[in-house]
Write a structure and sequence with these properties.
The complex is a heterodimer of chains A (452) and B (125).
Chain A lengths: L3 E4 L3 H13 L3 E7 L6 H5 L2 E6 L10 H11 L3 E3 L9 H9 L3 E2 L4 H8 L1 H10 L16 H8 L3 E5 L9 E3 L5 H16 L4 E5 L5 E9 L5 E3 L3 E7 L2 E7 L6 H17 L4 E9 L5 E7 L6 H8 L3 H9 L17 E8 L1 E2 L5 E2 L6 E3 L6 E5 L14 E9 L2 H14 L1 E3 L5 H9 L1 H4 L7 H6 L8
Parallel strand pairs in A: 1-2, 1-4, 2-3, 4-5
Antiparallel strand pairs in A: 6-7, 6-8, 9-10, 9-11, 9-13, 11-12, 12-15, 13-14, 15-20, 16-17, 18-21, 19-20
Chain B lengths: L2 H12 L5 E6 L2 E6 L4 H4 L7 E4 L4 E4 L14 E2 L4 E7 L2 E6 L4 E6 L6 E2 L4 E7 L1
Antiparallel strand pairs in B: 1-2, 3-10, 4-6, 4-9, 5-8, 6-7, 8-10
Classes of the chains: A alpha+beta (452), B mainly beta (125).
Chain lengths: 452, 125
């Protein structure tokens, strides 16, 4: 096992990792930018090193600075956390070249699974359903190709991005017209009119499966997380298990994750993201080759420490459980991401000094945070203040605990998303477990007629 | 309340970790709040100018194959290279910000430095 681990990150996740290191009796090194000298991760680690100025590019994203910090402090491994360099194959390779273990998969796995098209190919090879669509651009027989996929379909620009050139076609009669618009839009925006078709999935759920695999071939797939409550593709609430997944579907999802981990010869923890349709079909979306923000919900219902599993896998040891692909789970867990944003002003970022910071506690509450009373929020990094994680023996009691904990959570000096979470928890849709990726849009626009 | 009493009170308050007190005595009432914003309570003034590490890394007085005999008290010119910080395969130059006298050298050859660590103190002239 490692003797000393450097954490190439900041905020709550750096602290989360320090806690596991301490429990495993491994030394910890924090790195920080000049803007973070009063940050909690600097104080909690055994050692701390300033690696650069406030701009992340010159500190938390600087591979030479972080490698130098590891060498100077004698760290034998680096944990990248999430974000920053966590899915950077060059960083993983730089660690390897300097004789430092990267806590995460190999550069090859990061490249294979981090690249969307490559990962999709691998999923197809492993027999995992992917969103149906044309493999290549559509030049002729458009009607036949569209019919084969089944309406509704999406016409997407091959050179696309930013939503340009995307048209949704609900019936065969609209195809020719929409195709013309998509092609001319695409041509105007990208200088290339090539388009392809993909199945349009209406109001899907975002379901993901956490997995862990060691170099001895042991794989665990954990019960799914439901991360459907998002705003502009940013997750706000995550829960596990999903109210939309039954035993049979869970088994299929877990099997798919295990297959993919084995096909990629993946060592470490990772997450497979799926889209789940209203009618219960799931399609592979992408793989995250890092520890995720929402990992605590899985920890809470299964009793695993996923950071510890990362260290075990990276050190070439066996996972802490080698008795099969699935693990028992108990109760229901919900995570609320509390951000420094003003949701009444379209989630505009809020900065300043945290004048008051009173956290909820009591049964079934876990809070991962780096914030304290008197903390000055730096403007340079993401807006997450805390993760409020609640557990209950069943979903209804977890929801009741969320409501209680959000009420107890007192923050002054900055605006937070606590009020937005209260709205979510109070909504009938959330209480009934009826969420999809369009949930927040409907919740925040109550004046508009609610679409089914 | 007279000024004497007030200064006694503020002196006493500074010896505690209280940030704010309210004092009542008969008709008298006074609230005191400590200004403990570090930006305002401490002002360090020095004529010496620090030379900070431009990067985390290993400090060297000279690039590989070269020598450099800097001594405390030496006169240096603005832009003169005082040493380098080795980070990976890169050498980041450490230069004198002003013409002046090198009053303090607070770094040794081959020692690690953090970003922003003071390594020299210069007396501008």
């Amino acid at each position: 096992m490692f003797k000393k681990v450097l954490i190439a990150n900041r905020g709550e996740i750096a602290i989360r990792i320090i806690r596991t290191l301490r429990e495993m009796n491994i030394g910890s090194v924090s790195v920080y930018s000049q803007a973070d000298h009063s940050s909690l991760h600097v104080r909690l680690a055994d050692e701390s090193v300033c690696i650069g100025p406030a701009m992340a590019r010159e500190s938390y994203l600087s591979i030479p600075a972080i490698i130098a910090a590891a060498k100077i402090t004698g760290a034998d491994a680096i944990h990248p956390g999430y974000g920053f360099l966590s899915e950077n194959a060059d960083f993983s390779a730089a660690c390897r070249d300097n004789g430092i273990t990267f806590i995460g998969p190999s550069p090859k796995s990061i490249q294979q699974l981090g690249h969307k098209a490559e990962a999709r190919k691998m999923a197809v090879k492993a027999g995992i359903p992917v969103t149906p669509g044309t493999k290549d651009c559509v030049y002729k027989d458009a009607a036949a190709q569209a019919a084969k996929i089944g309406y509704p379909i999406m016409i997407k620009a091959a050179a696309g991005g930013g939503g340009k050139g995307i048209r949704i076609v609900r019936a065969a009669g609209q195809l020719a017209n929409e195709m013309n618009i998509a092609q001319s839009e695409s041509k105007a925006a990208f200088g290339n009119g090539d388009v392809y078709f993909e199945k349009y999935i209406e109001l899907p759920r975002h379901i993901e499966v956490q997995f862990a695999r060691d170099s001895h071939g042991n794989v665990i797939a954990f019960p799914e997380r439901d991360c459907s409550i998002q705003r502009r593709h940013q997750k706000l609430v995550e829960e596990s298990p999903s109210p939309a997944v039954d035993k049979k579907l869970r088994a299929s999802l877990e099997e798919a994750a295990v297959k993919l981990a084995e096909a990629a010869n993946y060592v470490g923890v990772g997450t497979v993201e799926f889209l789940l349709t209203q009618t219960g079909e799931f399609y592979f979306m992408e793989v995250n080759t890092r520890l995720q923000v929402e990992h605590p919900v899985t920890e809470y219902i299964t009793g695993f420490d996923l950071v510890k599993e990362q260290f075990l896998a990276a050190a070439g040891e066996k996972l802490s459980y080698t008795g099969g692909h699935t693990v028992p789970h108990q109760g229901h867990c919900i995570e609320h991401r509390i951000n420094a944003e003003d949701f009444t002003r379209n989630f505009a970022p809020s900065v300043g000094r945290v004048e008051e910071w009173i956290l909820p506690g009591g049964p079934g509450i876990r809070i991962d945070t780096h914030v304290y009373s008197g903390y000055n929020l730096p403007v340079y990094y993401d807006s997450m203040l805390a993760k409020l994680i609640v557990w209950g023996p069943d979903r209804a009691s977890a929801v009741a605990r969320s409501r209680r904990a959000l009420e107890d959570f007192k923050v002054k000096g900055i605006k937070t998303t606590i009020e937005a979470h209260k709205l979510i928890v109070e909504s009938a849709g959330f209480q009934a477990g009826k969420t999809d990726t369009g949930f927040m849009e409907r919740l925040l626009a109550p004046a508009e007629p609610v679409k089914a | 309340m007279d000024v004497k009493k007030l200064s006694k009170l503020t002196k006493w308050m500074e010896t505690t970790d209280l940030e704010e007190i309210t004092w009542r005595s008969g008709e008298d009432k006074i609230s005191l709040k400590l200004n403990n914003n570090p930006e305002h309570t401490t002002t360090i003034s020095s004529t010496l100018e620090p030379v900070l590490a431009p990067s985390i890394g290993i400090f060297r007085f000279a690039r590989p194959g070269k020598t450099n005999h800097l001594k405390e008290g030496a006169s240096v010119k603005r832009g003169q290279e005082l040493g380098v910080v080795e980070v990976g395969k890169d050498f980041k130059s450490v230069t004198a910000p002003e013409n002046g006298l090198l009053k303090i050298i607070s770094i040794e050859d081959g020692k690690p430095v953090e970003y922003g660590q003071p390594m020299f103190f210069l007396e501008p002239k």
